[in-house]
Amino acid sequence: MTEEVFRQDAYARSCEARVTAVDEAGIRLDRTVFYPLGGGQPGDSGELVLHDGTAIRIVDTRKGAAPDEIVHVPEASADPALAGSGVTARIDWDRRHRLMRIHTCLHLLCSLIPAPVTGGSIRDGSGRLDFDLPESTLDKQDLTTRLNRLVAEDHPVNPRWISEEELDANPSLVRTMSVAPPRGRGSVRLLDIEGVDLQPCGGTHVASTGEIGPVRVTKIEKKGRQNRRVIVAFDG
After folding, report:
1. Is the dihedral of CA 26, 31, 34, 37 positive or negative?
2. Model-level pTM?
C-alpha cells in the first residue's frame, strides 16, 4: 500500500519516502506525490533522489496489481538492492501543473454540455471529452467564450467526500458512461467547482478556475453516430 500524498495536497511537489520494492515493473514507495495514470490523466514524471544525491529519473507512474499500490517507472532498470533506501520523491511540477489546469478545464467544459460523457483524455497542454450527442449544435467560439468566462470568474475548486450510499442516492452526479467511480473504500471523492460542477473525480486539480488561464476550443469532431469530441487547449 502506498500513501497517496497527492490526494491530500495536489500542490505537494516532493515528499520523503522509503523504497519498499523494486522489480521489472518499477519502483514502489511507502508514500508518494506521483499521480498514477488514471481517469484520463497521465502519470507523473520526475525523479527519486537518494541520500547521496544520485537521481533516478521517473518517466511514468502507474497503478500496481495490488489495491493502493503505485509503481514508479524508471528511465533505466533500477537495482533491487535499493529496497529499504530513503529517497526524496520529486515530480516534474511544471508538467503536473499544466495537467491540473487542463483537467480542471475539462470539468468546466462538462458543465457547459448537458450530455453524458463517453470518454476523455488529458495531454500536456490540451485535453478532450467525448459526449453522447446524436446531433451536434456545439459551436467552437461559443464554447470558448463561455469557458473563458468561467475561468475569469475564478470559482473555488475543492475536493470533498461522500459515502457510497450517498452516491447511489444521487446517480446524476456520475457524468461518465464508460468509467465508474472507484468503490470499495466506503467513500467516493467528489470535485466541487463552486456553483459550476460537482462530480466524482480522483485526479489532481487547481485550487480555483482563474489558475487555468486562457483556453480555446480547437476542434469539434464527429466520432460515430452519437459521439461528438470536443478538444480544448491553452490559448497562448
Report:
1. positive
2. 0.93
